[in-house]
Amino acid sequence: MKGGIFVLSGAGLSAESGLKTFRAEDGLWEDHPVEDVATPEAFARDPELVQRFYNMRREQAAKAEPNPAHRALARLQAEHDAPVYLVTQNVDDLLERGGAREVIHMHGALKDALCATCGHRWAAPMVMDIKDPCPTCGTPATRPDIVWFGEIPYHMDTIQEALEDSDLFVSIGTSGVVYPAAGFSQMARSLGIRTMELNLAASGGRFDEVREGLASVVVPDWVA
Ligand SMILES: CC(C)NC(=O)[C@H](Cc1c[nH]c2ccccc12)NC(=O)[C@H](CCCC/N=C(/NCCC(=O)O)S[C@H]1O[C@H](COP(=O)(O)OP(=O)(O)OC[C@H]2O[C@@H](n3cnc4c(N)ncnc43)[C@H](O)[C@@H]2O)[C@@H](O)[C@H]1O)NC(=O)OCc1ccccc1
Questions:
Q1: What's the pTM value of the predicted model, to 2 decimals?
Q2: I need a labelling partner for 212 at 20 to 30 A (CA). Which of 50, 131, 164, 198 fits?
């Protein structure tokens, strides 16, 4: 028994903290077609528009508070007698503000800025401007440290090792549409790992157990 628990989370985990999910009728992608704001092409075409989109997201995330699901996962990570890998597609820091010690942000984080020229990373100002010079190479090529569509997600090796070190895979608040994250449950099954889904409604993916309901209810219930 390896004992590790692999928790993959998505926008549904932060929905009750007031952060829009992506695909709901009033989803983020509704009023900002993804190809206009979350692709390198969009950034090359209209960097101001992309910066405004992520400045808005950064402001919303700063105003949001962790909910009982974030805190329950932080508690599980602190109390479980084996590693609890909190892998998230979310770019907000509500798991950390909920007390989580270590979070793997596979799609980046709103709190970081990235120099598109030299790759230097630093803490993002609340309002980021394309003209902000990189503190290392000085070029004005500042972008949000976010993984856009067509870009390779972060920490894929760490994620693979975490999966191989786990006995249980739990998917929370994700529709399972975006790859490679959407393929992790299948990878877990092929490793013989037990799989669970905690989601408002079953996403339709194959899991050994599905518990439907609000994350703020089903996650603390499961952790308890
Ligand atoms: C649209 C999709 C088909 N396209 C892709 O998957 C693409 C292309 C692709 C790659 N492989 C493929 C294979 C097949 C088809 C397509 C592809 N993938 C990529 O481009 C990725 C890069 C993808 C990352 C893009 N960046 C994001 N985010 C950062 C930006 C930003 O945030 O602005 S993705 C973004 O959208 C996704 C949104 O999904 P969810 O989080 O699940 O949110 P959603 O709204 O959909 O669902 C919410 C769920 O919660 C539930 N819910 C709601 N409220 C609650 C509640 N209260 N409680 C509980 N549950 C709740 C709902 O019922 C629902 O089920 C998240 O991943 C999120 O991070 N890069 C890549 O593949 O590089 C090469 C590669 C390949 C292999 C290995 C290495 C590299």
A1: 0.95
A2: 164
